[in-house]
Design brief:
34% strand, alpha+beta
């Protein structure tokens, strides 16, 4: 199921950024508890966003880009917020592309500038949306709930079909002993 979510805009000197809150990643990790003198399960939450220079969240220069030294660049990737800052989730495709849709090399000076502009936009956006982490977690919890409800519906249908098959066997048993 595709869920439409609000797209937020952040204006910068270099251009416009688009940010969409994504469902957080939720996992269980083992932590040492001095009180219990044992490892206990703990929930680990990684709130997530999708950041792009294009409102359609693609490397699309026509839809949106940043101008740096007269050249157009696009940014498009998903990020997680970790304890020590933002983490890029999209290294496989490269977050930063030039106007010819070529991935920028990490050693390029423009790469560092795009990184700084992106972090500036994220910082400004986080200031304006202080509850975004809760919203990201809520999206994950809703997705998990919906998945479990789908499983309940599937199992209920399966149980209903099994009940129908059992009734047919019972009919044969009754006919046999009648």
């Amino acid at each position: 199921m595709i869920v439409e979510r609000e797209v937020h805009e952040v204006e910068t000197e270099a251009g416009k950024f688009y940010i969409q809150i994504l469902a957080a990643e939720l996992s269980t990790v083992s932590k040492w508890s001095e009180g219990e003198r044992a490892h206990v399960p703990a929930e680990k939450v990684k709130p997530r966003v999708w950041l792009s220079t294009s409102p359609n969240f693609e490397h699309d220069v026509e839809q949106g880009h940043l101008k740096i030294r007269g050249k157009a660049y696009t940014i498009n990737h998903q990020l997680s917020l970790l304890v020590n800052g933002w983490s890029n989730e999209s290294w496989w495709n490269g977050a930063y592309h030039n106007a010819k849709d070529k991935q920028l090399d990490r050693s390029a000076k423009t790469w560092d500038l795009l990184y700084d502009l992106e972090r500036e936009a994220l910082a400004r956006w986080v200031e304006e949306h202080p509850n975004w982490e809760t919203e990201s977690l809520r999206y994950r919890l809703e997705a998990n709930r919906d998945s479990e409800l789908d499983e309940v519906r599937r199992l209920a249908e399966e149980a209903s079909q099994a009940g129908g098959r059992a009734a047919k066997w019972q009919t044969r048993i009754e006919a046999l002993i009648a």
